[in-house]
Amino acid sequence: MNNYSFYKGGKAFYCLFFFGCFLSFTPVLATSMLRQLQSNTPQNILHGIITDGTSPLPGVTISLKGKTRSGTISDYNGQYSITASSLDTLMVSFIGFKTAIIPVKGQQTLDIVLQSNTTELQEVRVNAGYYSVKESERTGNISRITSKDIQTQPVTNVLATMQGRMAGVEVTQTTGVPGGGFEIKIRGQNSIRPEANNPLYIIDGVPYASDPIGSIQTSTIYPTFNSSPLNSINPDAIESIEVLKDADATAIYGSRGANGVVLITTKKGKEGKTSFTLNASSGAGSVTRFMKLMNTSQYLEMRRQAFINDGRTKYPKRDYDINGTWDQNRYTDWQEELIGGTAAITDLQGTLSGGSQNTQFLLSGNYHTESTVFPGDFLYKKGGSQFNLNHQSTDNKFQLVFSAGYTVQNNNQPANDFTYDSRTLVPNAPALYDSKGNLNWEKGTWNNPLAMLSAQYVSKTKDLLANGVLSYQILPNLKLKGSFGYTDLQNSESRINPSTIYNPSIGRTSAISTIALNTTKRSSWIIEPQINWEKEFGGGRLGILFGGSFQEQNTSRLFQSGTGFSSNSLIYDLASATYQQVLVSDETLYRYQAFFGRVNYNYMDRYILNLTARRDGSSRFGPGNQFANFGAAGLAWVFSNEHFLSDSSWLSFGKLRGSYGSTGSDQIGDYQFLDTYNSSGVSYDNIIGLQPSRLFNPNFGWEVNKKLEAALELGFLADRIFITAAWYQNRSSNQLVGIPLPGTTGFPLIQANLAATVQNTGWEFTLRTVNFSSKDFNWTSSINLSLSRNELLSFPNLGSSTYANKYRIGEPLNIQLRYHYTGLDPVLGIYQFEDQNKDGKISSPDDRLTVINLNPDYFGGFQNQLRYKNWKLDFLFQFVKQRNQSFDNGLAGYMTNQPERLMGSWQQPGDPGPYQIYSAGYNLGAVMAYSRYGLSDATIVDASYIRLKNMAVSYDVPLHLKEVKCAVSIQGQNLLTFSPYKDGDPEFTNPGYLPPLKIITGGIQLTF
Fold this sequence. Notes:
Oligomer: single chain
Shape: globular
Strand content: over 45%
Radius of gyration: 35 Å
CATH class of the domain at 120-266: Mainly Beta
Structural class: mainly beta
CATH superfamily of the domain at 120-266: TonB-dependent receptor, plug domain
CATH architecture of the domain at 120-266: Beta Complex
């Protein structure tokens, strides 16, 4: 039996403690006794060292729990001392670390190790343009991908790397032709003018003009008819891409951030031994999906029935497919013949990098070639180099960063996209070549599609981008910085139409051959001085940034044409043309200046305030309207750093953030406010006259986009599960549009501000999980989902304007007004439509009132990254819920091939169809009904899809050589597609043009 004494050892303390707990049932009495007890407890000096486990932490706050007037701060060596009793409890807090709560328990020496309050994910710094910020501390919405995501994709355009990987960023490939471009929308369409919705691109701090180059008369990059300058950027040279979306992130760019900002950072040299990396890959590309078309027997059955339905007993002479002129048993799969080729793709890149502690460098070169799926020998070639130099002084006060990139592109393509022909040519059309290997014209009975191979398009582009950044820390908390950038782009295009593209039976000669030449030159310089001051005090950090931006951009264009040559061999010599004409010859100068600022305060890593502002000036507006002010405020509360959650074992991170502000837009082109004249090109009395081209209107000003956002970020189990949910609302007003004018004025339109308001609202969700993590096996997943709604909120006098048949209040901008299809007349077998205005007849536009929304309902991506020992697997599924128009093959029964599904057309009274009666063009009722059918809601079908967008498998070969590393890989793009859409590729919104290709490549990487 143990005998306890109330007067020995520490037992008296325990007795008093339990007695105090008992008295807690009477709170006032218990508090009074506890204070009395503490006041009678001896006070001692407690001291020790505070570290992070490896090094001392200066500036740590140490206080006594419940005593507001007590406290101290650790010195430079992490040492502290504080007067405390044995009953006191220490509260130890420091920015970036979890608050420690430690009972004193009579100790006189107490060393404390603080635990980091952020995971690796939270510590990642993201590029916000003029500054960088930790993921855990950002108040704005910034999406990011890195070289790890980019290097797994066999693509040539930087926008392709972002598809399906970023919430709120909708990227669509516009063509599968090499050198083509992409469309990008960041949180929807803000401007009524589609061409005014491009984001701002910043490459290593230098604004990069994304305006298309080329001319509709020369380019054959359908359907945009121009080349994308973004093809000049080598994806393999990119370290990271950040997309700024909300007001807090974009307002510091003012008028340039209305549609979002895309920040591209190229790779930099790293400290260490000089190394050389060689990447080589080769692969093939092909069309992802073909339409299922009729074969010869099905097609001829349709054609014969069409003549029977039309009451025709004889086949006209021009109907060679059915009147016996052409072989009735011949069959050609024209899709396989014209767009079923294999594009050969090769890539080669070498990188040399290394450096000392103070100076690092990187030098790389790349070469890419890609043929086409069209017949013929056509090739797209791209080569370039990248150089980067980083230097800092021994005392780390002076820093220099210089980067430069130069790219040359040479694109040779046919002047015709064969996709439409491949879907409409009749299956028993003649062979492409005769017995001698020449183009077959079948005695003049058809136009051989391969004749267009001689009508070639050639484009040459040279692009230089250079940037230098100098910074010097003049005081411990004060840094001066200057950024200097220069870009130079030169593009020349030619398109020839020789007489050989015509049927020889017509008798055309080189006298009608033509050439079109276009030259575009665009150069710009920018200077941005900045000053940055940071200071820690009062448990927080204050940062102030102020700077200016001064830019000038010069663009010149020359478009010429020539007609009539003595020989087609002289067609590229414009001086040999009989008729020469200069259609465009102009030079524009764009000047821009701005002053911007940022104030950021972070209090104890819990409460963060971010204020940004910018005053912009643009030469694109008239006097009095050239300047505008924009700004935003962002707030964040990192509630996971609060004391009541500091010991949470399940919640590793939690943040509420929100922002509100305004940005603007001046994307209207140059000199739009001036009363301008251009050359008439017509000689009168040996004098070339001038003609007015634009009306004077100095009163229009900036578009304004007001942005509001609220978001929640949660991390669980050391951020193994990380969730972000964001809601946004963007309203764009004061729309800059060309207001149409009556023809009697002599001008098509006048540039002005329209009092219309466009709103984009939506939700964005991202989920990142670390499913498994060990020495040999890692598996991470991420999924993003975007739900958006675009709406025209207001448009004064819309009904009486020229936009009355294009837009509707309360509906998205991207709509079509169509007839409403009501079904098939079971007696006549003809399509029927609703008389929506009830006037007793079907007419356009009075009965085209059904609104079709062509914006996606939602889109996103699901990515997985797995590593097992030396193996790596990365794959991405992209998904989109959307509608698209079915392909129009023409009237079923006419001399064009049709989808196989049209075999289910109406045959006799009572037949439900679903497709109308065949007609060879003699049944006017059927012809008119088909014309309306193509403009009705019946042709808008579900084009939703899930696509295995990207897959990459790599293996690190164990060479057991310290100086050599080797990795082999297989990469694929657009590999599998699951969709109810039947007319080709569902992603592609331009039927009749070449869709994106399925690409598979194999490669090897060697590092010495």
